[in-house]
UniProtKB/TrEMBL annotation:
Keywords: Antioxidant, Disulfide bond, Oxidoreductase, Peroxidase, Redox-active center. Thiol-specific peroxidase that catalyzes the reduction of hydrogen peroxide and organic hydroperoxides to water and alcohols, respectively. Plays a role in cell protection against oxidative stress by detoxifying peroxides and as sensor of hydrogen peroxide-mediated signaling events. It is an enzyme of class 1 (oxidoreductase). It catalyses: a hydroperoxide + [thioredoxin]-dithiol = an alcohol + [thioredoxin]-disulfide + H2O. Its EC number is 1.11.1.24. InterPro entries: AhpC/TSA, Peroxiredoxin_BCP/PrxQ, Thioredoxin-like_sf, Thioredoxin_domain. Coiled coil: none annotated. PROSITE patterns: THIOREDOXIN_2. This is thioredoxin-dependent peroxiredoxin.
Length: 147
């Protein structure tokens, strides 16, 4: 993985999200909108978004889904976090979260659920890979509270 944490991606409304303008940042990568684990994780980050904001952190989720898919996901579940669209996997590859996975007995390239906390200086402070969705947002919050 690169030490370069700077990137720009479109959010669900098509606006440019420049990571450097949202530091410190909790950046989480997830496989697919509206799937059970991804919905659990997004809802938990939404529930804790106010606490992250009080500590100065922006929370943003990244997947390969389209902006329209993100809009539907946000509306369907009342999500209160920023979702970024990376269909070309540019940022997913930058953070090395695309790996071979076993999907119903087939080998596929997919997003491995991962989270990075990026400090005000643009450096990665914490990193979690192969995350279990349930309870993860609270784990990240505890880490940033202790930082």
């Amino acid at each position: 993985m690169t030490e370069n944490t700077n990137f720009t991606l479109p959010d669900s409304d098509g606006a440019e999200f420049k990571a450097s303008e949202h530091l410190p940042l909790v950046l989480y990568f997830y496989p697919k909108d509206s799937t059970s684990g991804c919905t659990t994780e997004a809802r938990e980050f939404t529930e804790l978004a106010g606490e992250f904001r009080k500590l100065g952190y922006t929370v943003a989720g990244v997947s390969r889904d389209s902006q329209k898919s993100h809009q539907n996901f946000i509306c369907r579940y009342g999500l209160g976090i920023t979702l970024l669209s990376d269909p070309e996997e540019k940022v997913c590859r930058q953070f090395d979260v695309i790996h071979e996975k076993n999907m119903y007995g087939r080998k596929v390239q997919g997003v491995v659920r991962s989270t990075f906390v990026i400090g005000k200086d643009g450096k990665i402070v914490f990193e979690w890979r192969k995350v279990k969705a349930a309870g993860h947002a609270a784990q990240v919050l505890e880490a940033v509270k202790g930082a």
